[in-house]
Design a protein that fits this description.
- There is one protein chain.
- This protein is α/β, with parallel strands linked by helices and 237 residues long.
- The protein has one domain (47-235): Rossmann fold, CATH 3.40.50.10490.
- The chain contains nine helices and five strands.
- InterPro entries: MURQ/GCKR (IPR040190), SIS_dom (IPR001347), SIS_dom_sf (IPR046348).
- Keywords: Carbohydrate metabolism, Lyase.
Length: 237
């Protein structure tokens, strides 16, 4: 193992969970539950930026534009699910894209995620313009496919937001709105950032709920919620 990789793993090591593998199952779960409380605090610190995202996205949609949400791997699945749940019938101005297309929703396609040019091509295929808005989901901020799409949106002068754990990453440098919840080290080093992904999902849920309220879809919130529940139940999810 290289010294740089060792140093990186040391930096990410959680000081309070080094003995988690020796705990009884109930104690292990209690430790994980306690650690997850950081997620809500981290998201709470980002509320002003989340509000800006909702306001700009609402303005974009009211002018006839679209909000395009993109990501690779787990982030891409979050994008697709958020758009689908927002309106199962698909009659709205939200678009979800995942690196590698719909098949990647079931199995990751790293080749696509690592293709910078493909990210730009995906937006071009949508006729993405400066009337639209791009929201990029990328925990690391370094995914080439996401960066390529962001660079294309940036070249058009479209508003861009990013949800990432790395506020100084390549992706963040292209964004007008940077939402960077600091959830701290993972309880188990080497896992695929479960706390960061949960924070990302919470923020995206806030976004879609906020948009639903702002664009009048929730004049009767109970009715909107019940319709989503019925549609979700029929699809077996």
């Amino acid at each position: 193992m290289s010294s740089s990789l060792t140093a990186s793993m040391q930096a990410r090591r959680h000081p309070e969970t080094t003995h988690i593998d020796r705990l009884a199952t109930a104690d292990m779960l209690a430790m994980l539950h306690q650690d997850d409380k950081q997620i809500s605090e981290a998201v709470g610190a980002c509320l002003p930026d989340i509000a800006r995202l909702i306001d700009i996205a609402t303005a974009t949609i009211s002018r006839g534009g679209r909000l395009v949400i993109i990501g690779a791997g787990a982030s891409g699945r979050t994008a697709i699910e958020a758009v689908s749940d927002y309106s199962p019938e698909g009659k709205h101005a939200l678009v979800g894209l995942i690196a590698g297309g719909q098949t990647a929703a079931m199995a990751e396609r790293e080749t696509a995620a690592n293709n910078y040019d493909l990210g730009a091509f995906e937006l071009q295929s949508l006729d993405f313009s400066n009337r639209d808005m791009l929201l990029a989901l990328t925990v690391s901020g370094k995914t080439p496919w996401v960066w390529g799409a962001m660079r294309h949106a940036w070249s058009l002068g479209a508003p861009i937001a990013v949800i990432t754990q790395q506020p100084t990453s390549e992706a963040a440098q292209l964004a007008d709105i940077i939402i960077a919840p600091q959830t701290g080290p993972e309880a188990v080093a080497g896992l695929a950032n479960p706390k960061a992904q949960l924070a990302q999902r919470q923020i995206v849920n806030m976004l879609t709920t906020g948009l639903a309220i702002r664009d009048g879809r929730c004049t009767a919130i109970c009715g909107w919620t019940c319709r989503l529940t019925i549609r979700t139940g029929r699809s077996g999810r």
